[in-house]
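Q: Here's a chain of 296 amino acids. Please give me its 3D structure as C-alpha cells.
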Amino acid sequence: MYYDENTIIFLDGKWIRASEARTGMYNQTMHYGNGVFEGIRAYQNADGCNVFKAKEHFERLQYSATKMHIDLPYSIDELINISYELLDKNDLKDAYIRPLVYLGANMSLLPTDEVHVLMAAWKWEKLLGEEPLKVMVSSYQRPNPRSCHVEAKVVGHYTNSILATAEAKKLGYDEALLLDIHGNVAEGSGANFFYEKEGILYTPPAGNILPGITRATIMDLAKDLGIHVTERQFTIEEVYNADNAFFAGTAAEIAPIESINGEKFKGSWQESAGHSLYLMYRQKVQYNEYQGLTIV
C-alpha cells in the first residue's frame, strides 16, 4: 500500500526506486530504536500543492536528531526542497510524507557517525478514519519524561503506541488514550487530545506529550475564532463530564471522539468548537494560512 514498482524515494542523496532500496541488517535503528522521523502532509491547491508546515516539521526533525546525538546531514531548506521534488517525481499532490533518519551498523549503545536519510511519500487517508471514535483509557502509560525525550519524535518511542493501539483494537475500541505517570490525561497513541466544556478547550501541557504541530495549529486557529484554550493537567474523570473531545495530529488530522470507556459525550460534534476548527484547518492546510472563508 505504500509503494509500487514506479515509486521513487530519496535515500542518502540519491533518487531510487523504492523496490531497490536496501539497508544493513546491523543498523542501530533496527536493533535499538535510535532513529528519528516525521509525519508530514501535502495538500493539493490551485497552485499545485502545499507541504503543510514543512519548516516546522523539519525543524522538529532536526531537534529530535540533536536530542538523540544524531548529526542530520541536511539543512532545513534542503529537506523542504527534497520533499517537494519527491512529490513531483511521484506525481503526488495530496500525500503523506515520511522522512526517516536512521543509523548505520553499531551493536554498542552509543550513537554512530554513520547517518542515513530516507524520504518517501504515499497516498494515505486519515489515520483514524472519518467516523467518531470509541476510545478506551489504555493500561499503558506514556513514558516517564525523565526516562527519555518524550518531546522528540524518536523511532523507539512508538513501541508504547503500538502496545496501546493493539490493546484497544483487541478489546473492540478504535483508539487508546494514555495517561501519564501521575494519572493525568496525556495523549492518544499517535495524536494530541483536546476536550471541550462550555465553549472552552482544554489540552494537556507540554512535559508528558509530544507537542504536535497540528496541536499548535489548532490553538492558533482557536485564537482567530475567539475560542479560549487552556493548557493544564486534568484527570479522565474531568473528561467524562466534557461536551465533546477530539484527537489532533498530522496523520489523524482532527478526529472526533464519540465516547471514552463507553461514556458518550453529550454535545453535538457538528455544533462544537472542534468541528468549527476542523473546517478552518482544512482551509488552512492548502496554503499555510487561513483564507477567511465562511464556516458553514
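Q: Can you summarize the key feature?
A: Residues 292-296 have pLDDT under 50 and may be disordered.
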